[in-house]
Specification:
The protein is mainly alpha-helical. It has seven helices and no strands. The protein is rod-shaped.
């Protein structure tokens, strides 16, 4: 959702910047395209390793600063200027949210709690007094399987930019296209 929101704001900036005079319109459009391209080509592979691209960050900051010296004069410029600034702020906020998720994932203490809870559950299931050892082994195996699947899901959702269920860069690719 954060990636989609960031991408949507970037597309809005691109389209709304048409209402700005030159050279601001061209500069904003170029920065939007450069940012999306850098996010896809450089940052996405880095996020799988828990890192972010300083190049993409630099472009995001340039996008933020690109209208510092702009003073709206027409009514259209006065209407679109605050909207663009708000969209730029939202791109930055969504980028920070994406960065936090990519860099930190699930805290070590959460993993410790999950794994200890899993061990306790398996031990308790194994302690059930069942005469048939096969039935007891099946119960322990099923409990272990459910716990392992849940831990795997926690891993997949806790690190959304890694693995086979990773978040796609497609929203940014659509923006570029």
């Amino acid at each position: 959702e954060t990636v989609r929101a960031e991408s949507n704001c970037l597309a809005d900036i691109f389209l709304m910047s048409e209402r700005l005079p030159e050279p601001y319109a061209s500069r904003m459009k170029a920065l939007c395209k450069e940012y999306a391209t850098t996010v896809i080509s450089h940052e996405w592979p880095l996020m799988a390793k828990g890192h972010m691209s300083m190049d993409a960050r630099t472009i995001a900051v340039a996008l933020f600063r690109s209208l510092h010296d702009f003073e709206p004069t027409t009514e259209a410029e006065k209407a679109v200027y605050p909207a663009i600034l708000e969209m730029v702020r939202q791109v930055w906020d969504n980028r920070r949210g994406r960065a936090h998720t990519a860099e930190f994932g699930i805290a070590a203490i959460q993993w410790i709690a999950l794994i200890l809870g899993s061990i306790v559950t398996v031990v308790l299931v194994g302690m059930y007094a069942v005469d048939d050892k096969t039935v007891q082994a099946v119960a322990v195996g099923l409990a272990t399987s459910v716990i392992a699947l849940n831990l795997y899901l926690v891993f997949l959702f806790g690190y959304p930019f890694r693995g086979e269920m990773s978040v796609s860069e497609r929203p940014f690719q659509i923006d570029i296209d």
